[in-house]
Protein 1
Amino acid sequence: MRTVYLGTSDFAATVLRRVAATPHAPVLVVTPPDSRQGRGRRVSAPPVAEAARELGAELLQAPDVNGEDALARIRAAEPEVLLVCAFGQLIREPLLSLAEILNVHPSLLPRWRGAAPIERAIMARDAKTGVCVMRLTAGLDSGPVALRGEVAIGGDEDYGAVAPRLAELGGELLVEALDLLEDGTLTFAEQDDAAATYAEKIGAADRRLDLSRPAVEVAAVVRALTPHIGAYLELEGGERLGVRGARTVDVGVSPGTLKVEWGALLLGCTPGTLRLEVVQPAGGKPMPVDAYLRGHPLPTLG
C-alpha cells in the first residue's frame, strides 16, 4: 500500500525500518526538525530522520504537521494510509481525515493511554505490557484496536530492556495490519473506555526518588526511567545523584538514610531497603557504585 510514515523516537525508527523492508515502504517520512539534545545541547536529528536517510526515503522535517506546507507535501504523496508511531505532534483536521490512519501504541489498550505507556507500566510493576495497532481518532489513544500483542515484563527489567522488544513487535504487527488492510480483511474492535488508565508524560517530580514510598516502588521508578530519562536522589545543597540501577535487599536501614555496608551503598525507604548498583554523579557518567565510592565521600541526602 502507498504509505506516509510519521514518527520521531528510537522506537518509531525501529518500526520504520521494519515497514521499509516490505512492499508498504513509505513514500514519505515525516518527523520534527533537528533540536538541541543532552547536556552539551548539541543539535541532533530525530532518530526517525536518521533512519529515513539511511533508507533513502523522502524526508520532511516539519515543526507542525498540520501546517499548510506539511499538509501539501503529505497530500502530494497521495497516501492510502498514514502510519503514526511515537510522533509527538497532535494530528488535527483536515489531516485526520485525509486517509486511514494506523497508530502503533506501546501498551495493552485501554490500559496506559497517553505519552509514557512503557514507563508507567514498569512503574506500576505490571507483569505484562504490549503493543496495539489502532485507528487514530481525535481522542487520546481511544480509537478502535485492530491488532495487539503481549510482552512479559521481567521483575528486574528496565525501560532499556523492554522498549526494544516492544518496538520489534510493533513493527511486525504494523506490517501484518497493512497486509490485512490491503486484502480488505482488517477489522477493528472498540475499546472499553471504563477500563482506561492514563500514562501521563514523565515530569520532574517523577524523576526525584521519594523515600517515603516502599523500596519495591522506588526500584520500579529507577527501572522505568533507565537509561533514557534517569531517576535521581536529591543531595544536601541541591546537588543530584543519578540512580541508574538498584534492587531491593533484605537489610535494615532507617528510612531516608544512605549507608555504606560491606562495600554496598544502601538506601532506606518506607519500608524496605535498596542496594544502589549504578549511580551517576552530577556532570559525570553512570558508574558502578564501587567505583563511585572510591572517588567520592558518602553523600548526604537533602
Protein 2
Amino acid sequence: MSQAKPRIAVHKFASCDGCQLALLNAGEALVELAQLADIAHFAEGGWYAPGEPVDIALVEGSISAPEDAERIRAVRASARYLVTLGACATAGGVQALRNGLARAADWLGEVYASPEFIRSLPDSLPVAAYVPVDLEIHGCPVSTEQVLEAVGDLLRGAVPAPGADPVCTQCKRRNLACVLVNGGQPCLGPVTRSGCGALCPAVGRACYGCYGPAGLVNAAALARRFEALGLGGEDIAGRFLFITPAAEPFRSIGQGYRERGDG
C-alpha cells in the first residue's frame, strides 16, 4: 500500500444489494474500518465518487448490460486490488439463469411494456469474465466477517488464500446429521464451498449452493446420487443452476441435465 491512508470503494452492478448490506451490517466494525482507510465511494453508505482511484475496490453484482462491461473496466483500472463480493459477482447470480436460453429476448417483451428501451447482454456473467480479479468472496449474501477479514488482510498487504473446503466439513464440526444420507434430500453441501456455517443443514434443509463450487469436487457423482433419489433432469438442473449458475462445474452439469429435459 502507499504511504498515504488507503482508500476503498464499493461498486454495485446487477444485484440485490444484499452483499453491500452485509457490509453495512458490520456496524461498529465498519466505523473502525473507516478509521483505518478512507471510504472514497460507497453509494449505499453515503459516499459517492465512483471514478476515484483506490487501493481496494469491492464489487457486488454481475455484468448484465453493455454499460456494465464498460464500467467494470474503469473500476479495474482505478483500483490496485479488485475484490468481488457474492454469488452475482463471482458466478453470475440468479440472473444467470437466462444464460443459454433462446427465449431470453422474448422475456423482455413479457416483462416490460417497452422492451426496446432495455439494454441487456445475452448472458449474465461474473466480473472475472471481463477483468482480472484479485480475490473472490463467495456467498448469497457474503459473510460480513469474511469481508472484513479479507479487507483487513489487504490493508496489511497480504492477499488472503481462498477457502476450498466443502460445507460438509462444517456440518461435521457442528455434529449435524447429514441431510443427504440420513434425510434423502438433494443437498449440494458435498460440492459447495464452506463459509455459511452450514446454515441450511443446521435446520434440516439441503444446501442450495450459495457459496459456489468447492475445490476438487465431483459434481457429476453427486448429480447421479440425485438421480438415485428420484430426481429428474429438470430438478437436478434446478439444483445446480440456482444461485451460482455460471460457475463451473455447476454450469456444465446443470446445462447437461437441462438439455435432457425429463421430469
Protein 3
Amino acid sequence: MSHGFCGIDFGTSNSALSAGLSGDTQLVPIEGDHVTIPSTIFFNVEERRTTFGRRAIAEYLDGYSGRFMRSLKSILGSSLIHDTTQIGFDRVSFQRVIGHYIGHLKTNAEKSLGYELPNVVIGRPVHFVDDDKIADQRAEDELRAVATAQGFKNIEFEYEPIAAAQDYETTLDREELVLVVDIGGGTSDFSVIRLSPDLKNKPDRFKDILANAGVHIGGNDFDKRFSLASVMPEMGYKGFLQSGLDMPLAHYHTLATWHLIQTLYTQKNINFVNGLYREAEYPDQVARLVKILDDQSGHELASRIEGLKIALSEDTSATAQLDFIEQGWAVRAKRTDLNKAIKADVTKIVDVAQETVTKIANIPAKNINAIFMTGGSTGLHGFRESIQKTFPDAALVQGDRFSSVAKGLGLSALRKFGAATQS
C-alpha cells in the first residue's frame, strides 16, 4: 500500500483531516460523506461497542447504557490525562480514550483513501495551557505519544491559526497583512502573518509570521456561561436552602462544563444532590437537577444549550425544549441574553487579539488588511461586533468554520512530507 501524508485538526468540538499522496491535498470524508466529525466518543456498554461522532451522539441520545465523552482535547495538559474513568466493568485512562478517537480518524481516512498515512501534521493551539510553558509542552508531548501509539511514524505540529492562514492564502491575488482568529471549543488563537500568492509555496514561513498568541477560552466557555445564566437558575442555581444558606454551586458549574459532566454520575454526588432537594427552598427546581443525574442526561442538556446558542446567531430569540427533563419545560432566551452572558469572555478574547497586533507584532491596528476568522464561535454576533469595532479598517473574512484549519494542516503536511512520498 502507498504511503501518504495528512493534517489532523483534532478539535475540542469537531475534528477534520486533510490528506494527500503527492502534489495535492483534499479534505477526507471520515464519517460517511461528512468531512468533519464531532469530537465525541460513546462506549456503548449494552452493545459492547465504541462509536464516534454523530453516531456516538445518536446512541447516547437514544438511551443506550454507557459512557459518553466530549471535549477530550481539554484534558491534554491537565491532571486528568493519566487518570482513569469507569467504562462498564473496566477502568480506562483518558489518554487511551483520546487514542481511540485519534485512531478512528486515521483508520477511517485510510479506508476512504486506499493508502496508509504514516506522516502527519497535527494542529495545536498556541497555548494548550495558559501561562504555564511546562504544562503546555507536556500537553504536546502527550498528544505526540497518543499519535505514535496509533501508528503515526513521522509527527509534526503546527499552530492552528497559522494553518488557517495558509488556507486563506490560497484565495489571495495580492499581499495582505492578516490577523487570523481561530476560536475553537477550548481555545482562542491568533496569528499576525504576511500572506501573498507569491509566498504560498515557500517552505519556511518563519519570517512572515509577526506574532502568535492565544487564550484558553472558547466555545465551550460560552456554552458554560450561557447555561449558568439561562437554564441553571431554573434548576436551583444561586437559590437558597430552607435554612437561608446559599445553595452550593459546584455541581451546577460541573454540569455546565462539557468535559467534566461525566464526573457527576457517582452515587456520592447523587446522594448529595438528593440531600439538596430535601433542603432546598424551591425543591421543584432542584428536582430537575436530580432527574439529570439519575438519567445521566447532562450531555443532552449541554447539547440543547449549545443549540440555543447557535440558534441565537441566526435569530434574535429562540427556545430550548427541555421536556426530556420535565414535561412542558422550555427555556426561551434573547440574543441580548447570550451577549450579556459571554461579554466578559468575548472582551478578554478581543483584548488578546488586539495585544497580538499592537504589542507582540508591534504594529498599528490600522495596518491590518483583513481578519480571517475560523472556528464555530466566530459566527456569534457579539464577537463579530466586538472584533470589527476593535479593527474598524480591516475586512472581516469568514473562512470555513470547521475545516479551514484542516485544509491548512494538509498544506503544511504537503510541504513537510510531499517530496518524501513521491520518492
